[in-house]
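Sample entry (316 residues):
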Amino acid sequence: MTGDAMTNGPVIEARSLVKRYDTLTALDGASFTVDRGEIFGILGPNGAGKTTLVEIFEGLTPVTSGTASVLGIEVTEDPQAVKARIGVQLQAASYHQYLTLREILELFGSFYPKRADAIELLRRVRLEDRADARMKTLSGGMKQRFSIVAALVNQPDLVFFDEPTAGLDPDARLDLWDIVRSVRDAGATVVLTTHYMEEAEALCDRVAFMNQGQIVGLDTPQGLIRSLHAPYRLTLTTTQPLSEADVRAIPGALEVTQERTSDGFVARVRAQAAPAVTTALTTLAARSGAEVIDLAVQPSTLEDVFLSVTGRRLSG
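Predicted structure, serialized as tokens:
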């Protein structure tokens, strides 16, 4: 995709963005960049400032202080120029229920100097056979797929997706993931807000964690996970309890907890080096005369990182 204002610099550059509503500070000095051609995720609990941040980039909300550049355009100086170059998919979009899909896309396209063919857009999300169907006849998954292509009518260089898979079943969610990837593969940069950690981990090249109006973590998903002091979770279930002191004495064993369950005695350990701690745990169990019922080694997730950074889970 092309555009007169595209530069070789970042697609988005936020510099010390602050947004206040009377005594409420919705954004508190957010600074970061989004590179061309990436899927960039913004995650955070309700009230973290995600919506305010995105609305500033979209030219919908003025800043209290700081600057935001989108596609080489200072949003605060020319929001209309930004709006012509971006696509926006909203979580709760409302379309005329008695217009056909083709008519809606053609109507939206008429608002822009550059537009995509309606049938070609529908083909991208496998809705071309529903081109003359009315919105009210579509299933929830079809409506979600349509909301994505409705954001592409002006062939945007940058697309904002707001919770694109909210409320969908697992199969439909995976289907939408492929569509989001295809938008990036076609040449657009994608900014994605989501509440699903596994979605961000699967889709995003980089992820920004937001909490209380601030960017509290920003890296690739794996980079964020590697930043944890203990990126692995080990769970050992045995017939007899292990000495907690002996478990804590294992080099590299951190955050040790034990409990008795219906399956046996469960020791949970955080570890930096999973193989060495696993070997030491099983050796300790054998020396203690405890039979190993189950052993699981799991890498940490973005949810673990978010909990470590903010002190709460995303759903909290």
